[in-house]
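User: I'm preparing a small set of examples for a lab meeting where we compare how different chains pack in three dimensions. I only have the primary sequence for this one, and I'd like the structure in token form so I can line it up with the others. Please keep the answer compact; I'll paste it straight into my notes.
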Amino acid sequence: MIRIGAMYFAPVKALALAELPQARLEKPGIAGDRAFYIIDAAGALFTQRRYGPLVQVRPSYEAATGRLELAFPGGDRAEGIPELGEPISTPFWEGRPVEGHLVRGPWSEALSEFAGQQIRLVKAAEGRRVLRWLSAVALLKGLAPGAGAGCRAGRSRRPAVSPEHLCLRRLTA
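Assistant: Understood. Below is the structure token output for the 173-residue chain.
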């Protein structure tokens, strides 16, 4: 038996993770996971690797209603239902393009002010996956590290879960 002790998702890639009390794993993943991402002024992907404090911004996203809220340290918030702007294609790792739309509203301005440079929020196109694999944080008992069909080695120590295969590695204390 596998027991998942905690599950997290990232409504906006590069911001803080949000804990999920429950989730349904569909073929494209968990609804709302990495629905948005951030780009810099030149259109390049902007992540915590370039500005670590992004992890302090707490996103909340309701996929069913489209409502997005970003809570910043100090109490400032940017919230509402994002309006899609012009289409954009962003090269991700290994040059893989991810299609999306720039987001109109208070989010890009608030993120830019927080980061001290111009950055923009992008909504990934429906049906397009920002990541090919989902990340899962789980507490497992009785499962050998890397056990399960479909396991793949990666740069991350986080367990990998694909829509086709379950691959969870035991976390050590």
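A couple of notes for your slides: Residues 107-115 form the longest helix (9 residues). Confidence is low (pLDDT under 50) at residues 131-173.

User: Perfect, thanks.
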